[in-house]
Amino acid sequence: MRRILILGGTGWLGAEIAAAAVAQGHQVTALARGISGFAPSGVQMVHADRTESGAYAPVQQPWDEVIELSYAPELVESALDALAAYARHWTLISSVSVYARNDQSDADETAQLLVPEDLQDYADAKVHAENISRARLGSRLLIIRPGLISGPGDPSDRFGYWPGRFQRGGRVLAPEPAHRWVQTIDVSDLADFILGPGSTMAGTAINAVGLRITLEEFFAELQTSAPAGTTLAPAEDSWLLDHGVNYWSGPRSLPLWLPLRDAGFAQRSNDRFVKAGGTLRSLSETIARVLVDETRRGLDRTRRSGLSAEEEADLLRMLPPATARAPLKDQDQNTGSR
After folding, report:
1. DSSP strand E in 81-151: where?
2. In DSSP terms, which residues pair with 90 in a beta bridge?
3. Could you tell me the CATH superfamily of domain 3-149+188-208?
4. Percent of the chain scoring above 90 in pLDDT
């Protein structure tokens, strides 16, 4: 049994880590404001605002593991000031967004990082968090750099938008899939790595990313559980941008859609993760898990990412009919993972 402190523990990933740690028999404490949700059963919850003086006093004691989920400079720095001396091992959850370039296929952890300039920017703040944590913790620090995280309960709606949308059937507006990729890691696989192989690793960084598949393969996999007659309606990038559709995430977006110049973002090397003992469930299993959750939460609900049904319908009415495509299941598609 290990004593684990999670700085967070009530949000999506933090709660997943906390629940998994309890299930493994560890003694788990979560320090958080508690506004993102509730700590899982079996977790000792310490309510505290980390921007306030004395917030860390209740947890200034020896820990086998401290897991930092924040990237806000004031929170990362204050945690290091208060707790670095008490931690045997420290895991910082960073992101593949720290890399300076997204146009390189199969880039690994040695790729060049951004130079942080604006600490209000997500990527710059992540790099800053890595730098100051490395300076304070040295060989006790493991940096985890996830890519897109998927799974039940995802609050971002980036991955879940697509299983939910295909399940509604009809014409599905999508970007042209050629030369595009999807790379995701299931939230449970990520938590298992952090608590398992990652707990014995330090002094390094790990790309915690999944298998790379083409966007065409991803859509074909979604088609297997979609209603009969579901049709893909691909649109060119220029057309989508001219009609106010956004890349990647957020309102009025097509999630996972990236500029072709950034195709390397979803083609990172996961060799170090796999060699360290990381395991990855199949894409079909993750999709099945997500689809159950999407159905429970409501396929027609308002989402943080994607197009509403009304927005998509308006766009489909304007889309030139020549771009409509037959149902994916009728095409000769290679659905294997790479």
Report:
1. 90-93, 141-146, 148-150
2. 66, 141
3. NAD(P)-binding Rossmann-like Domain (3.40.50.720)
4. 91
